[in-house]
Amino acid sequence: MLSSAQQSFLSGIFSEEDISFSPEEICAYGGDSSRLFAMPWAVVQPRNVEQVQELLQFAHAERIPLFPRSRGTNVVGACVPQGGGIVVSSLNLNAIRDISPTDFVAVAEPGVVTAKLQSACAAKSLFYPPDPASHRISTIGGNVSTNAGGMRAVKYGVTRDYVLGLKAVLPGGQLIECGGRTHKNVVGLDLTRLFVGSEGTLGFITELELKLLPLPQQTASVLVGFSSLEAALHAASEVFRAGILPVAMEFMAREVLEALSAVTTAPWPEATRAVLLLKLDGSEEVLPLELARLSRVLESCSPSFLATGQGADEEVLWEVRRLINPASFTVAPDKMSDDVTVPRGRVVEAVAGIREAAARHKLVTLVFGHLGDGNLHVNVMYDKAAGQLPVAKALKDDVLKVVLGCGGTMSGEHGVGMTKYPYFNRQIGPVERQLMRRIKADFDPRNIMNPGKAY
User: Fold this and answer.
1) Average pLDDT over residues 347-354
2) Per-residue pLDDT tens over the stretch 395-454
3) In which band, very low, low, confident or very high, does the pLDDT at 372 lie, cut at 50, 70 and 90?
4) Is the C-alpha dihedral spanning 52, 54, 56, 59 positive or negative?
5) Using one digit for the tens of pLDDT, what is the confidence trace for 233-254?
6) The whole model's pTM is what?
7) Cα distances (Å, whole numbers) of residue 30 to 216, 228, 337, 418
């Protein structure tokens, strides 16, 4: 715990409303959406860069662990203060400093909610594409720290592709600036990209310069079902083969469709075993032509049903995708979520392997996700009260074996945090891991930034 002298020093940096030592107040900052928990020693909420610098200088000198945090929406325990330390919340650093229609750049502090930035950009006919599922509540800083993806990644890429530059404070209090407002920059090593996905282990980000695009005029979506997963994946291949690049291409396997049927009236026939959900965007003149072309390609693949929509009708189609999380709990009361990625050409093999593992362990496993980039969400459903947690953990282990055996990765967009840290060595070799630790040591020689996470 913090000594009285340390508490007094911190109270000299932060106002009474921006610091707390009370267990009743700091308890809420001990967990995240992973449902893991550890009690912090204190919580601070900086309002400016100078406070961050003072804090990191103090923590470095005193060897006090710091745990950067925004909204705590991550599901891997990336901001849980394991071992104790100070949680540093970015929620007061929430200003949008600039949105430039000429530079196509936005400048924002880490505590800005992603949807708020997107809305502010759209008001100027500009587009910030990354769309993690939590974009309505998660923050830009959290998205950058985990390199969040989302459904639009198949066409527009992930958060890393839109971070042009940043400012960050290192342990010891030094402020660094990486990158800038230019859309091209090959001077020196790319420290900006090193921060993206580092899960708060290198320093505390205080400002971000983000690339913007012109805002598409319209969008349209297609919900289409097939008699098998293989048929759905063949249709997806035909879409790409036709030269069509959707904004999003989601898929839902049979177990997911069965769970959805328990909470909503399914729009697909009973014999449907897999569903694709695709989105297009473009100009008012061209989009209807692209939608017609996409529909023709899908109809040539003998779907069990096909529905298209724009505007309000489009939202009805996407409501099915949004219901997956609540529908999953009709299967079992507890869930172990994994986000994995395999090469596009091995999705069928990966899903088959996951299903075989689920059958061996006798647990229903829901598989769905971003088919366009091979990113699968695997939800192992179990009942902890019935003693199924060890079985679920064993199944998770087998799922990762299947994914890595397909040349995949154990995390596509959620990060490593605490939940995947024990499996890190399976994917990353000892030489590469040592390089990462040496880089970490140069940025944070006393290992105070989010220790025990990521790598």
Assistant:
1) 94
2) 999 999 999 999 999 999 999 999 999 999 999 999 999 999 999 999 999 999 999 998
3) confident
4) negative
5) 999 999 999 999 999 999 999 9
6) 0.94
7) 40, 43, 20, 13
